[in-house]
Amino acid sequence: MTAFLALVAETLREIPRRPYRPSEFFKQLHFVANQSVPMVIFCVCFAAMVTILESSFHMKIVIQNDSMVPGFAAMLILRELAVVVTALLMTSRVGAGLAAEVGTMAITEQIDALKMLGIRPVQYLVVPRLLACVIGMVMLGIIANITCLVAAMWVSDFYLGFAPGTFITSMNRFVGMSDFLGALVKAACFGFIIPLVSCYFGFNCEKGAEGVGRATTKSVVASSVAILVVDFLLAYLFSILKA
Hints:
This protein is mainly alpha-helical and 243 residues long. The chain contains nine helices and no strands.
């Protein structure tokens, strides 16, 4: 934990320092955001449809009425579902890739070569990936929320019998702009966690292909656990602020 916190501190110190690498930043942003959009849309769409169907099913059992389903599902989507599912998908796709990339560079001594050339590895490798992940996660969070709401609205209309106008009216009763902004704050925090955890395990990768595999697996597991823990802490903090 001490070594990881040292990496976090060094990364924060390196962010404002030159040289800036805009080409590397946009390359990473394209990898994180643009190339992830189809996967995110496909997965969160089905997650939203399952959520609203399950909510309707259980409300009918418990209170014999599912009139609150559109509003309840919209609140769940905005506060938790869209951004958390997106973050876990990014952990598998982006985090694993970063850990494998940095780990391979570590065992082939490319990171030592950077140091010999006077290039700071954290500034060269971690900073552009961190900034790209934070901004990319916010962008994906917006797309995921919109996709989930549209999918939920579609299922409400064609399967549950709630017209789009009814869905929007019910949604406005349950959620507000603070819920949307809270989701974006969560997305930024998750985007902060994924590259740091992945690069940490990459830097500490053991020799050989097996070592790269272990580093990748550890990074995905640790990032997923960290995302769920931070999600709980932020949800608790937001509930206190709204009280």
